[in-house]
Every structure is written in C-alpha cells, then in structure tokens.
C-alpha cells in the first residue's frame, strides 16, 4: 500500500470534494489499495457524517442511510425480504458488520484480471486491453458485455434493489439529486472505466425503496460454487403479485451474469397476464437468453439464469420466500 493523506470530514459540505477517495467500511477500498489497483493520494473517512437511519422518508418509501451497516439492514423487519436475503448471502458476518450499504453499491468487480496489476484491464488502465477475453471466463458476464470488458458486477444488494425500483439520493457540489438505481450503473461499451453515473466529488446519502408494500412478496436466490463467502455465478431477485392464479405484476433482476445489475423487462412482460405455474415461468424465462453473449467457459450461465428465474418465482408462489 502506498502512502496517502487521511481526512475525516464531519459535514457534507466538507465531504463533497473531488480531490479525495471516500472510505466508509473500507472492505473494498482497502483491499484494492493493498493490491495497488487503487492508489489514492487523499482518502476521506466519512463515518462521522449523518448518513444513518432506517425508516419512512419524508416523501414516503423506505429510507436506508448510506452508512448503515449491511448486517443491521439485513436484520431490520421493515426491509423487504429480497434485500434482507441479498445482504445475508453477501460476504461473511464479519464483513457485513463493517461494510456500509452505500459502499456495497459502489464496490468494484471481483474480476481477477482487474485485481492483478500484471494483467491488462481496461477498467484499471483504459486502453490496455481485456485480459479475460483470452483467459478463464467461467465467472464472467454473458449480458451487457463489450469487446473492452466482460467483468461481472459484484453486488448482491444492487440486484435486489434494482428489482424493487430503488432510488439513490446523491449530493455533490451542485446540490442534491435523485437517480433510479437502474440508471446509476453503466455497461462497459468503449469506456469500461466509467462504471456509474456518480459525478466527481458526489456522495450517496441514502437509498429509497419507493413502494416497500409492493415488495412484500419478494425473494433473492443466489447460486454459487460454495454455500458461504462466495460471489454469485447467477442470482435472481424477484417480486410477484398473483390474483386468481394470474400474474398481475412482476419485477425481476439478475446478478452474476451481467456487467451491471440486470433488469429483465422481457421476462416480466412475458409473465404478466399468464397463469402462475411452473410451465409459464419456464416459458417466460427463455426470454432471458435473448442478447446473451457466452464466452469460452461460461455458456452454462444462460440455462442457469433461466432455471434460477423459475426457482425464484416458484418460491414466491409456494410461500417459501418469507
């Protein structure tokens, strides 16, 4: 790790500074600094800022302060099941006790080529190439990729929140603004180093789930190589509303298979108005294969995504998600 200057702002005005890198729980940033993947000259510890709390916001909806720890949010009864499950299946208990939810949404990819400074990586060093393309691609993305980057997004929490139409409250030099989380992330295209819409010096202050009641019947299913402390090969967050046996509303997002938390509107459209049966779920899940671009070692993720969608929807119809 290289030398750096550390500050600890106590007000948002002091924290909004494009010249420093923000530290909350540090569970991603410190790792990357140790690897020399990130080498900030100035780090701002923002833990003294008033960015905590879980409850109903002034404009309605469920508000979660950006500095709330993952473990606390995972145990809060007012938080939708999909979010609680996504958090409980993330990292380890020790890391969940330390990591903030805002930091989790900002975490960088776990792609081994990004983290190995001896390898080319367009995220780490734009224009250097993508080492994964000719390497081991088993854990890489099949959706939202480009010839410049095929790295998956790492956050479980982001997948659940995208399925719940969550919004971010942001503050920067130009004042506060609100942005849908689904619009926050960027596919790599020709600029994989631009991962999100956060402006220079801007901070996430809180996460808002606009309609927590509409997320009452929600779940998060994660498929991984081992049962703990492992990133998703595929994950699905879903909400489902069924009336008289017919799907009236559904929202689905996927993780572990894409370069960002991936909403599946085509699958949702195929389900609305259809019977809430396994056959209907399987037929709609076939739409998830549209636009996939499997690589040498990750073609299995396409059928895995389809099966995971069906599993999540069956949980919601069989009452096993609560």
TrEMBL record:
Keywords: Oxidoreductase. Gene3D superfamilies: 3.30.465.10, CO dehydrogenase flavoprotein, C-terminal domain (3.30.390.50), Uridine Diphospho-n-acetylenolpyruvylglucosamine Reductase, domain 2 (3.30.43.10). GO terms for molecular function: FAD binding; oxidoreductase activity. Residues 1-214 form the FAD-binding PCMH-type domain. InterPro entries: CO_DH_flav_C, CO_DH_flav_C_dom_sf, Diverse_Substr_Oxidored, FAD-bd_PCMH, FAD-bd_PCMH-like_sf, FAD-bd_PCMH_sub1, FAD-bd_PCMH_sub2, Mopterin_DH_FAD-bd. It comes from the Bacteria. PANTHER family: OXIDOREDUCTASE, XANTHINE DEHYDROGENASE SUBUNIT C-RELATED. This is Xanthine dehydrogenase YagS FAD-binding subunit. It comes from Prauserella rugosa. The lineage of its organism: Bacteria, Bacillati, Actinomycetota, Actinomycetes, Pseudonocardiales.
